[in-house]
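Researcher: Quick test of sequence recovery. Tokens follow.
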């Protein structure tokens, strides 16, 4: 896999999580998903490009890597964001049910909103994106939790996702 693809996938995943979090806090209507994603990307373009460039440099072994003129469409995959958001919207009850049944003594109402956004993102990936192995979705969710959540969240998220995968596979 190309290094710039890794940077684009990580950037897309991070900003998808942020959009999921934002819509859960603001209770935004997701009727026009295309417009919602376009506005979100436009409003965060500078941050998205900075994060993408940071990840490109981090994953590159080319000391002369040029990041001049990087376009927003090179940095983030809007189709991925829309696919995940649509999956969550269409399967929200099932996703919440999976979380509730696998989060021992927790419910979606009590889970921190960022943790919940990460869980929903990973479960949506597991449900609809066949070319991303389940282990990758779990590992990437843990990495997001290490960046954006408290110290206990990565283990908490890993446990829930492991149980969710087991439940999905048993059906």
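Model:
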């Amino acid at each position: 896999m190309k290094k710039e693809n890794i940077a684009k996938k990580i950037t897309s995943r991070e900003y998808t999580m942020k959009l999921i979090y934002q819509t859960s806090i603001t209770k935004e209507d997701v009727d026009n998903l295309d417009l919602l994603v376009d506005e979100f990307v436009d409003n965060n373009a500078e941050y998205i490009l900075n994060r993408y460039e940071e990840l490109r440099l981090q994953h590159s072994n080319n000391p002369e890597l040029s990041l001049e003129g990087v376009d927003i469409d090179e940095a983030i995959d809007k189709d991925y964001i829309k696919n995940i958001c649509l999956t969550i919207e269409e399967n929200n009850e099932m996703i919440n049910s999976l979380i509730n049944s696998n989060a021992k003594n927790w419910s979606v109402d009590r889970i921190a909103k960022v943790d919940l956004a990460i869980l929903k993102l990973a479960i949506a990936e597991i449900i609809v994106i066949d070319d991303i192995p389940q282990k990758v979705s779990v590992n990437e969710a843990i990495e997001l939790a290490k960046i954006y959540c408290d110290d206990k969240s990565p283990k908490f998220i890993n446990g829930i996702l492991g149980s969710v995968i087991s439940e999905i596979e048993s059906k």
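Residues 33 and 86 are 8 Å apart (CA to CA).
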